[in-house]
Design goal:
The structure holds 2 protein chains of 2 kinds. By secondary structure, chain A is of the alpha+beta class. In chain A, about 40% of the residues lie in helices and about 25% in strands. Chain A has 3 domains: about 150 residues, 2-Layer Sandwich (D-amino Acid Aminotransferase, Chain A, domain 1), CATH 3.30.470; about 70 residues, 2-Layer Sandwich (Dna Ligase, domain 1); about 150 residues, 3-Layer(aba) Sandwich (Rossmann fold), CATH 3.40.50. In chain A, helix 5 crosses helix 6. Chain B folds into 2 domains: about 110 residues, Rossmann fold, CATH 3.40.50.720; about 150 residues, Rossmann fold, CATH 3.40.50.261. Chain B is built from 9 helices and 14 strands. Chain B has a 7-stranded mixed beta sheet, sandwiched between helices. A 7-stranded mixed beta sheet of chain B has the order 9-8-11-10-12-13-14, sandwiched between helices. Classes of the chains: A alpha+beta, B alpha/beta.
Chain lengths: ~375, ~290
């Protein structure tokens, strides 16, 4: 779960990472009031879960409360990069002497953490790595030992002397956030040395591990603050793994890998998937019915492809689930069904005998994808 | 003897008295696996259809000579279960549990670096050496004994490909599900290394998906160390960046972890990459020595 900047900064504040004074505004008027309180000169920053805000107009540096109000209004009404914006962060403008970059993230291949400090902040870190590799210092952090002081000395060793102690303190606290809050990424870009000699976090990018939310009640409570597609919400509430995509073939499958593979095969057949939906293992009638309801509530769906490989999941139960679902929802599109694996013959027979005009059986995954693509094309 | 599991496997199931634990322990036993013990704290002294239940893994090992553990305990207790099995000296731990916090898995990975124990999973279907042992939840009926090794990040996709192989009369030596989590135990390289050494394996099928760089690392390993033919399938060519596709580890981050990059890396190492599960089975059929 990716936190908004202001939420990341609230976490930082709890761990004592120095910040610039700022407050969240949800309207132009609120932005104006905050700017007034902060002395007029402020940064207005759009709060979204994507990076690259600076270049795309998501940060406005303004000189008066009026300008702060109009910048906030623009951001709140226009949205950012296609996502809705419900809040902006208004922060006091500060005098920056130098900008750095600091991050600690999961290194999934090694099962450890990777800490990086760049003496060149404010830029895309991948670009720094390509163009100025000497600006980067990195160390692997053993999760059992934690971030050690000699590692921190190395990480800050290429920064100007006056920035080293402040940056070292920030790094130690960043690691604290990572370990204690179940974060998989803690990134500060830029980390700034102010003209007064203080090192502060001007930005905060924090990702919390979804699997750990049961023991991070503070982070779990933030879940509802992020915008979510209504169909996606319905699926999540039913406990389904669902991702909205922008095609026209609705997909239901079992197992993440098989569903991903189904999306790919649909594209090879000349159409595009409207979603990713994994019903998981051992899916019975009820779950299949709910899945169908979710898929059919997406107006862009023009045909549905149900691709089940029965392992623990039994195809006869899936077949009954489909028929059960059809008594609950009136499908406006055809359902191409491919069943294989455990009890597949029985499942196919159940569907055949039902003689339902909405069901189109298919023998293989490829054949099913081709038929679903053809039906989606014919329906437009 | 195929790899990792076989006739010599003596299984202890941690969490055997839970519904999934019981169901799959009995299925594994019915397949022919020696399921010698179970462990559930507080339920030592009972039995599950004749399988004795112990308080600790150490007790189970002491009494039955178990050498492999299969874990079904809930996510919040799973790391503890892995430590316990490691300390009891088991050679192999297979963890089916999904949803273990990443932080816990980094600590587990760190601990395992100092031990001989091999971990398979978590968030995986387990592994099977057809005809001799099934450890986990892979449906044994779809497999048939033979000389193709499989290693995969995905469960049902593995079943799909195994099924297509079996339909073409091509059997398997061992099928290993390494799991869909970002931090896991044995990876592609660990499996490739064992398949390369295994006299009963002639060809390896490697099934990957978006996220991380395990496939790219595997490609380098294949070009440097593997002499047996490798056929691959990668899922997620049409997955959008930044979205988690079901598995915790299946996510394209920025520009890294795409299916395209993985397929190219593998092809660069001389691996034949199929575009559909059926094409993978056909490639295996034409490549098999």
């Amino acid at each position: 779960m990716d936190l908004y900047e202001h939420q990341g900064k609230e976490l930082f504040a709890e761990h004592g990472i120095p910040l610039v004074e700022g407050f969240v505004a949800t309207s132009g008027q609120e932005a104006r009031d905050i700017a007034e309180r902060l002395g007029g000169k402020v940064a207005v920053k759009v709060q979204v879960q994507v990076g690259g805000r600076g270049k795309a107009g998501g940060i406005a540096l303004v000189a008066s409360p009026e300008e702060a109000a109009s910048a906030a209004e623009r951001m709140l009404s226009e949205g950012f990069g296609g996502t809705t914006v419900t809040r902006v962060l208004v922060e006091r403008l500060v005098d920056i002497a130098e900008q750095y970059y600091a991050a600690i993230s999961l290194d999934r291949s090694e099962g450890t953490y990777l800490a990086i400090v760049s003496s060149d902040g404010g830029m895309d870190i991948e670009q720094v790595a390509r163009e100025k590799p000497d600006a980067l210092r990195r160390v692997h952090v053993d999760p059992i030992l934690g971030l050690r002081s000699y590692q921190v000395r190395h990480l800050v060793g290429h920064l100007p002397r006056e920035a080293r102690e402040g940056t070292a303190t920030v790094l130690n606290k960043m690691y604290e956030v990572l370990a204690e809050r179940d974060a998989t990424l803690v990134e500060i870009n830029p980390l700034a040395l102010l003209t007064g000699g203080v090192v502060v976090a001007l930005d905060a990018k924090v990702t919390i591990d979804d699997n750990a939310l049961y023991r991070q009640p503070g982070a779990a409570a933030l879940k509802d603050t992020f915008p979510i597609d209504p169909v996606e919400k319905k699926a999540k509430d039913a406990g389904l793994q669902y991702v909205k995509l922008d095609g026209e073939v609705g997909i239901i499958g079992n197992g993440a890998g098989l569903v991903m593979s189904t999306l790919d095969v649909v594209q090879q057949a000349g159409s595009r998937a409207a979603n990713f939906l994994d019903v998981g293992g051992g899916a019975g009638a009820e779950l299949i019915a709910t899945s169908l309801e979710v898929i059919l509530s997406d107006p862009s769906v023009r045909s549905v492809l149900i691709n089940i490989f029965g392992g623990i999941t039994r195809c006869d139960l899936v077949a009954r689930g489909i028929l059960e679902a059809l008594t609950r929802v009136e499908p406006r599109v055809k359902l191409v069904v491919r069943l294989d694996g455990t009890n597949a013959a029985e499942g196919r027979r159940i569907l055949m005998e039902a003689e339902n005009e909405h069901i189109v059986p298919a023998a293989t995954m490829l054949e099913a994808a081709e038929e679903a693509a053809r039906l989606a094309g014919a329906a437009t | 003897m195929a790899i990792l599991v076989g006739a010599e496997t003596k299984l202890v199931v941690q969490g055997i008295t839970g519904s999934e634990g019981t169901f799959h322990s009995l299925r594994n036993r019915a397949y022919g696996t020696q399921v010698v013990a179970g462990v559930t704290p507080g339920k030592g002294g009972r039995d599950v259809e004749g399988i004795p239940v112990f308080e600790t893994v150490a007790d189970a090992v002491g009494q039955t000579g178990a050498n492999t553990s299969l874990i079904f305990v809930p996510a919040r207790f799973a790391a503890e279960a892995i430590y316990e099995a490691t300390d009891a000296g088991l050679a192999l731990i297979v963890c089916i549990t999904e949803g273990i916090p990443v932080r816990d898995m980094t600590l587990v990975a760190g601990y395992l670096r100092g031990h001989e124990t091999v971990l398979v999973g978590p968030n995986c279907p387990g592994l099977i050496s057809p005809g001799s042992a099934n450890v986990g939840i892979i449906p044994g009926e779809i497999c048939t004994p033979g000389r193709v090794g499989l290693v995969s990040r995905s469960g049902t996709l593995t079943y799909q490909i195994v099924h297509e192989l079996t339909e073409r009369g091509i059997g398997q030596s061992t099928c290993v599900g390494i799991g869909g989590d970002p931090v896991h135990g044995i990876g592609f390289i660990g499996a490739l290394e064992r398949f390369e050494r295994d006299p009963e394996t002639d060809l390896v099928v490697l099934i990957g998906e978006i996220g991380g760089d395990d496939e790219e690392r595997a490609a380098r390993y294949v070009s440097e160390r593997v002499t047996k033919p490798v056929v691959s399938y990668i899922a997620g060519f049409t997955a959008p960046p930044g979205k988690r596709m079901g598995h915790a580890g299946a996510i394209i981050t920025g520009s890294s972890g795409t299916a395209q990059a993985k397929a190219e890396a593998l092809e660069g190492a001389g691996v034949r990459v199929g575009r559909t599960p059926s094409e993978v089975a056909e490639l295996v059929a034409t490549t098999l020595p």
